[in-house]
Design goal:
By secondary structure, the protein is an alpha+beta fold. Helix content is 33%, strand content 27%. The protein has two helices and four strands. The chain has helices spanning 12-25, 51-59; strands spanning 2-7, 30-34, 41-45, 65-67. The chain has a four-stranded antiparallel sheet, covered by helices on one side. A hairpin with a 6-residue loop joins β2 (30-34) and β3. The longest helix is centred in the first third of the chain and has 14 residues, at 12-25. The radius of gyration is 11 Å and the shape is globular. The termini are close together.
């Protein structure tokens, strides 16, 4: 499944700072940012819905995510 989230990450440097944490939280998933989109998209490819875990962990780092509808 492809999960798409709106984020408050608005720069490449902030995206790079979260890379290590995302790799820890989502070790088996593929993910990327689309910061050119007005919603500063985080796209995750996963077999499971990781929304709850991702929201809780990212909140610890001041990063807000909101799942966008299909």
């Amino acid at each position: 499944m492809i999960l798409v989230y709106k984020t408050n990450i608005n720069s490449k440097s902030k995206a790079r700072q979260t890379e290590t944490e995302l790799n820890k939280i989502l070790p088996a998933e593929s993910w990327n940012f689309d910061l050119e989109d007005c919603d500063n998209i985080l796209r995750v490819v996963s077999e499971n819905d990781v929304t709850k875990i991702l929201k809780a962990e990212m909140k610890k780092f001041g990063i807000e995510i909101e799942e966008l509808p299909d």
